[in-house]
Every structure is written in C-alpha cells, then in structure tokens.
C-alpha cells in the first residue's frame, strides 16, 4: 500500500489524513501529541470518527515507520522548511514532496532546496479545526497540482488520481506557478479581512466589507498584470479578478479562513507569505499597494498583542 506522511495536523492536514486513510497508509505528524480518534464533519453534516496514525516528530525520529511514497507538508508557510528539516534524516532525498502552503514563499524555496521532486498544490477545499480531535470540511473545492519547473507531470497525475479517488476533486496542471499567484490573489482579498473583522468568508459580501474586498482586488489585479500572470477563467482585467474572488467567497461562504483561525488562537498569521510577495512585486514594478500595505500593518499590530 502506498504510504503518505503528512507534516502538520492543521485543518488541511487532517482533511487529507481522513480522506487518504481509506486508500493508503497515512501517518499524521505534528509537534505535540494529539488523540488518535479523530472526527471529521463533512459538508453533508454527519460526523465520522476515524482512528488515525497520529504521532509527534520526536516519536517519528525515535521509531520511524516505513519510508513514505509521498511527504505532504501542510504546515503554515513560515514553518514548511523547518518541518522538512525535521524529517529529512529519515526519508530518502528522492522522496516526492507535496506542498500545500498558502502564498508564494515556501514553494520556490523548497523547490530549490530539495533534491527530489517537489509538487505544489493549491486548493479551494474549505476546512477548519474544532479542537485537538476534530476538523470540519466546510466546503468542497478543487485542487490543482504541478511543479514549478514542469518536470514531474506524471507524478502530479499520480497524486491527483489518488486525491480524486479519496473524494477530493483534483487536476494535474502545467501552469501551477500562475495558479499559485491566482490563489495568492484570492487569499489576499479574503484572509486578511476575515481575520481583522472576525467574520466567515461569506460575510465579506456585506456592505461593511465589500468595498474593502474590491479595493484589495484592484491593487492585486494591477500587480498580476505587471507580473505577467493571466487573468483567471479566460477573462481580462479587473472584472475577471473580481469575478474569481466573489466566486470563491460564495463557494466557501461558511468557511473559517486559516488566518482567522490563527487570530482566534493568537498565533502568528501567514501575512508574510500572502501579502509579502504581492507587496514586494508591487514595489519591484512600481505599482501602488497602499491598501495591501495597510492590511499588513493592521495584521502586524494585531499580532503584536498576542
């Protein structure tokens, strides 16, 4: 049986573990001990309890299970490199990695560092945690996977076939770099605002927040144009980016975004991985980013109080 190690038992990590456990050997790895009895509540609403192989990094290093076929890194972007380093001595350097981070920070860095294949996944699956033993699959989405240098198309096909069989719709693509930038644009328009205002995604439609969403997307659309990233879904200009963002907001209306979960638990957010690359790109291309800088500053002030 193909084995998968999942580094990071957050919402996406646990969703993956639950989904893959019926098809493959799954080891869910975190920094602290979690219950092996884990509950998932699917969008249909009927909770299911599963026994998952949940271990700590120290337990893994002391008694590593059989080498994995794939290592999925589902930590926050700023923790991805450290997570890989924590298991690098007990896996082959040819082991394929699958990176599930938001933003565009960890992906180019680990692609350069790791000698084996590195796939990047971008997903609109919605999930959030309900304590140490529960995850809610708040909304079904779609996952795209590929590698930044377009050298591992067959491997991406294997991963997406497994995800699809596990009930997570997925497609292998040869333009994952553009799709990561597109996801970055969506995250920038949603995550900071829901985190700052303490609302779920769908509430961004409200008049109190919709103007801020549009102001973010206006800056992001200009940055994407400067970066040479095509507008989504065959569209063009600001309208295409707005349509994408509002579509994701509608489809994930009940989702509690990861950045909001971080704020609620007083953890540092991924603002550096989401807003950082956009602000850096804007400065490099001479594009205005006052709204994005403002959001970054608001989040930094919020984090300073944790």
Automatic annotation (TrEMBL):
InterPro entries registered for this protein in UniProt: 6-PGluconate_DH-like_C_sf, 6PGD_dom2, ApbA, Ketopantoate_reductase, KPA_reductase, KPR_N, NAD(P)-bd_dom_sf
Keywords associated with the record: NADP, Oxidoreductase, Pantothenate biosynthesis
Cellular component GO terms held in the UniProt record: cytoplasm
Example of a GO MF term: 2-dehydropantoate 2-reductase activity
Gene Ontology biological-process annotations: pantothenate biosynthetic process
Recorded catalytic activity of this chain's protein: (R)-pantoate + NADP(+) = 2-dehydropantoate + NADPH + H(+)
SUPFAM superfamilies linked to this entry: 6-phosphogluconate dehydrogenase C-terminal domain-like, NAD(P)-binding Rossmann-fold domains
Top-rank lineage group of the source organism: Bacteria
Presence of the UniProt keyword NADP in the record: yes
EC number of this enzyme: 1.1.1.169
Domain Ketopantoate reductase N-terminal, chain residue ranges per copy: 6-149
The protein's annotated pathway: Cofactor biosynthesis; (R)-pantothenate biosynthesis; (R)-pantoate from 3-methyl-2-oxobutanoate: step 2/2
Pfam families: ApbA (PF02558), ApbA_C (PF08546)
Residue ranges of every copy of the Ketopantoate reductase C-terminal domain listed in the record: 175-295
Gene3D superfamilies reported for this sequence: N-(1-d-carboxylethyl)-l-norvaline Dehydrogenase, domain 2, NAD(P)-binding Rossmann-like Domain
Biological role stated in the UniProt entry: Catalyzes the NADPH-dependent reduction of ketopantoate into pantoic acid.
NCBIfam families: apbA_panE
UniProt similarity note: Belongs to the ketopantoate reductase family.
Name of protein: 2-dehydropantoate 2-reductase
Organism in which the protein naturally occurs: Vreelandella nanhaiensis
């Amino acid at each position: 049986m193909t084995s998968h190690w999942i580094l990071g038992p957050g919402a996406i990590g646990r969703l993956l573990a639950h989904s893959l456990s019926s098809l493959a050997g799954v080891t869910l790895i975190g920094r602290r001990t979690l219950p092996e009895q884990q509950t998932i509540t699917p969008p249909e609403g009927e909770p299911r309890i599963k026994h998952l192989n949940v271990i700590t990094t120290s337990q893994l290093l002391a008694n590593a299970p059989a080498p994995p076929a794939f290592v999925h890194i589902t930590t926050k972007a700023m923790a991805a490199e450290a997570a890989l380093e924590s298991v690098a001595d007990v896996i082959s350097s040819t082991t394929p990695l699958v990176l599930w981070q938001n933003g565009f920070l960890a992906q180019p860095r680990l692609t350069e560092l790791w000698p084996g294949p590195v796939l990047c996944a971008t997903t609109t699956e919605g999930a959030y945690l309900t304590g140490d033993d529960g995850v809610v699959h708040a909304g079904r989405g779609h996952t795209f996977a590929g590698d930044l240098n377009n050298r591992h198309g067959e491997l991406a096909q294997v991963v997406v076939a497994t995800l699809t069989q596990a009930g997570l719709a997925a497609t292998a693509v040869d333009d994952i770099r553009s799709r990561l930038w597109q996801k970055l644009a969506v995250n920038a328009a949603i995550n900071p605002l829901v985190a700052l205002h303490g609302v779920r995604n769908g509430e961004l439609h409200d008049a109190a927040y919709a103007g801020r969403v549009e102001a973010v997307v206006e800056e992001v659309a200009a940055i994407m144009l400067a970066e040479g990233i095509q507008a989504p879904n065959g569209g063009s200009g600001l309208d295409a980016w707005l349509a994408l963002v509002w579509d994701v907001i509608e489809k994930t209306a009940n989702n509690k975004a990861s950045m909001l979960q971080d704020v609620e638990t007083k953890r540092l957010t991924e603002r550096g991985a989401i807003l950082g690359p956009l602000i850096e790109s804007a400065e490099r291309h001479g594009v205005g980013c006052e709204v994005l800088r403002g959001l970054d500053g608001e989040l930094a002030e919020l984090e300073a109080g944790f």
